[in-house]
Structures are given as structure tokens and as C-alpha cells.
Design goal:
The complex is a heterodimer.
Chain A: H1 5-27, H2 30-47, H3 54-71, H4 75-80, H5 94-108, H6 111-122, H7 127-134, H8 138-160
Chain B: H1 3-15, H2 22-30, H3 32-49, H4 56-63, H5 73-141, H6 145-164, H7 174-211, H8 215-227
The chains are: A mainly alpha, B mainly alpha.
Amino acid sequence: MRYSTTEFEALYTRCFPPSMRLAMSLLHEEDDARDVVQEVFVKLWESDIRIENPQAFIIRSVRNACINRINSLYIREKIRMRLTLEPPPDDYNPEQRDEEVISAIKLLLTPREQQTVEKIYTHRMSYKDTAECLGVSVAAVNKNIVSALKKLRGHFKTCKS
Amino acid sequence: MTDEQKDILIAKMLDTPASLSDEELGMIMHDDELRDIYEMSAVVSGACTSRKEINMADEWERFRPRIRRKPSPMLWIMKVAAIFLAIIVISGIISMALDKILIDNQPKLAEISQQEVIEYNTSEQNITDSPSQDIDKIQDLILPQKNVIKLKKHLAQANVTEVEMTYEPKEIDIDEYLRIQQARIDNDLAMITAENMTDEIAAIHRVYDIIGEDDETIVNTIRTLTMQ
């Protein structure tokens, strides 16, 4: 049985935000993430079937589509896009994971390290631009980033063990 | 690998990954610490980029054009059939309407033409009857037998023309109708002239009968008047 346009709009409005957050968390590029999510919804629309739990189906489909896309890339391309080299676990919850990372950044990093992380990862600035923006050297930016990543890595390793 | 070398490699990995050589990529993949730092970097990158606000109205408007349903082939065939049927029905209705208009107008035109011709013939009959009656009256009253014979000959010629101009009721065109009307007017004029002449001749006869002149004098007088 087909969805009407109104029903599908309601479904899209409900399921798009978590799907988009998951895709962004895995692909890091907004356009790529939107493309993957829309592709999943188009397939659902064209399948002409009603899913019992559409949100779970869509999230699962988006996750698989993102992993397939990442796997199709070369390592160099993955590193350029700062994509994870290992596939996420089956119980990967991007919202929970992101919350944990943001909390750890606020908790563990110094203000300068937080500023550096924000410039490089949120605003996608280069080391040079970040250094100019913060009024420090490029070496200092790298030092802050490496220090921040090591702290976070240590934190999450401890949490996992 | 020293810490300094690792820092340089991390800087290249995070800032300018395109500048990494294959050898450097291999070193990153085979060094656990570098690989862990890279994975951590990927997780932080994902956490920072996924926090962007989503405007659902914009997102739906952007997505909606992608979900237009493809029309089924059966629906397409039905549409084509419906168009053909509509064309046939409309052309049939137009054809019937045109036929009806033409059939309705045809008898009216024929009726009008016929009526005109009948009216014309009736009036012609009145005109052709009247000169004969007039001549008879003149004959009865005043005219000598010789002159009456001449007049009858003259009128007989006129009657032949009148007979030729009598039409059976039929459809006529406008040119023919105009010719008939013209002939009718000419005939009227001829009849009026004949009447006048008859009156004048009758008057002359009366005068000459009273004064006792012979027929030759009367004929000469009439000829003189006719010439005038």
C-alpha cells in the first residue's frame, strides 16, 4: 500500500533529522549526507510498501548506505575527508556518541585546545588560518590538536576498558 | 619513529592529507598510536559537523521534487484512449450541429424564393388581365371594329411577352430575380403607356364621331399624336 504525499511528508519530517545526523556523523560532508538520506527515502517511496517501524528501517538503511559509500573510497580519500577507517559497531548511536565527545571536549581540554578544535573541526579551517585567527604559531596549533586528540583518545580507551 | 616525526606526520594527516605520500600513509596505517589519533580525529570531526541545525521546511521543499510518482502504463493508455474518444465525440457533435443548421436554413431559403415568385406571378396575372378587359370595354363603348383589331394585335404581342415572362415556382438566384423585377417594371410602364394611348384614341374617336370625320382622318390624327 502506498504512502500518500501527506503521510510521507509526516514520515520525512519525523525521520529525516536523526537520519541526517547519523549520515553527517559518518560522512562529515553535508551534501553527501543529504544525498544518502534522500536516496533512502526515495527508495522507500518507490517501493510502494508500508514499513511497520519506518524510523528503525530508515536509520538502518542510512547507516548501511553510509558504510557502503565509505568502503568504496580509497584510504587517501578517507583521510582527506577525515572519515573513520573502521566501520561503526552495529549498536552505533551517533547522537549518544557525539554527546559524549562534546562533553569530553568541554571537560578535558583547555580553553585554547577547545578553541583550536572548534576552528579546525567545526569551521574546517586550515592550521595556518587557525593560527592567524588565534594569534599563535602553526606549530602551536598542531601541538594543541595533538594534545587534545591524545587526551580524548585516552579518555575513551579508559571508558571502553 | 620519534615523537617529533610523529607530530609532523599528524600535522600533515590532519591539515594537508593530500600531501601524504604512499609511504607516509603506510606508516600511519601500521602505527597504532597514529591510527588511534586519526580515528579520534574522525570521531571529533563527525561530532562537530553533525551538530548543525536542520530546517525541516527547507529540507522537505528540497526533497519533494524527487518523489513524483511515475504514471503507470495502463493510466497512460487510458488517457490516450480518453483523448481519442473525446475527439470523436466532439467532431460528431460539431458535424451534427452543422447538418442541422444547414437543413434548417435550406427550406427557408427555398420558401422565400418560391413566395417571391408566386407574388410576382400573381401580380403579373393582374397586369396581363387588365389590358384585355380595358380593350373589351373600349370596344363595347366607343371604338370602331378596325381600330379595335389593331389594338388587339398590339396587345396580343404584349401578351406573348407576358406569357414568356410567366415563371413556374422554382428556386431562383438574385440575378434572375432582379431581371424579373426589371421586366415587371418595364411591363408596368408599357401597360400605362398603352392605357394612355387607348384613352387618347377613344377620346379622338368620340370627337370625330361627333363631327362626322371618316376613319382615314382618325388614323392620321392618331399617327400624328403617336409620333409626338
